[in-house]
Amino acid sequence: MKLKNLIIMAGFLFSIGTGNLFAQQSKVKIKVDTLPTALLIIDVQDFYFPGGKIPLVNPEAASEKAAAVLTMFRSQKLPVIHIQHTGGDPIHKNVAPLAGEKVITKKEANGFNGTDLLNYLMTLKVKRLVICGMQTQMCVEATTRAAYDLGFKCIVVEDACATRNLKYGRRTIFATDVQACALTIMNGYYASVIPVAGLE
Q1: CB of 193 closer than 8 Å to CB of 160
Q2: What is the C-alpha to C-alpha distance for residues 1 and 5, in angstroms, rounded to an integer?
Q3: Distance between CA 121 and CA 115 in Å, rounded?
Q4: Please, are residues 155 and 28 in contact by the beta-carbon 8 Å criterion?
């Protein structure tokens, strides 16, 4: 192997070992005129927080990251769409809609199913979606898969999503594993999965 290739490989292995692989990649610029982009914030509602009916693991941290993405979109005057599950509690204060921001109420896991989401996105001529919310393996994944099938380019913001421990028979599947599995399934096919730090 040539010396140049050895040096590249050594740097790659070092980046993995130090957890800095993503830092070497370019950030995704969400305001690209040739790729109109909208933000979907899915089901960040009070019932997923402590004291709610279905508390998740670390929903506060995920909602703060979602709020950071929301602030980024608002500052760049890009479309923001809040998706709220019907019958659930209000949208959490960390990502509460502003006047004029679109709010879509859904009954199913897939945010496109039975709603005007697709028509609204077509009206805006949106081609790419940045997606975050709760729960990762349910409404976030279902909406992302549907968006991909409809022709949208998708980005899922991994640290702006949250889920909970699940039961399968006598087994407990911990939230960290549920999250990792859902993100792994989406990444590279249905979506690009990146942290908030990967957006600008």
Answers
A1: no
A2: 7
A3: 12
A4: yes
Of 148, 142, 150, which is closest to residue 191 (Cα–Cα)?
A: 148
Residue ranges per domain, the chain? 25-198
Residues forming beta bridges with residue 102, ordered by sequence position:
81
- Cα-only R_g, the chain: 18
* Length of the chain as a residue count: 200
- Give the distance from CA 161 to its chain's centroid: 6
Through-space distance between the first and last CA atoms of the chain, rounded to whole angstroms: 38
84-126 tens-digit pLDDT: 999 879 999 999 999 999 999 999 999 999 999 999 999 999 9
Which residue blocks in the chain are alpha helix, DSSP H?
3-18, 59-75, 117-124, 141-149, 175-186
**What is the DSSP code (8-state) at residue 23?**
G
Q: Are strands 171-173 and 166-168 parallel, antiparallel or unpaired?
A: antiparallel
Please compute, for residue 174, the number of CA atoms within 13 A of its CA located in the half-sphere on the CB side: 3
State the CB neighbour count (10 A cutoff) for residue 140: 30
CATH node for 25-198: 3.40.50.850
pTM of the predicted model as reported, rounded to 2 decimal places: 0.87
> Which residue in the block uniquely carries the two structure tokens 């950030």?
27
Tokens coding 37: 């982009």
Distance from C-alpha of 27 to C-alpha of 34, rounded to nearest angstrom:
17
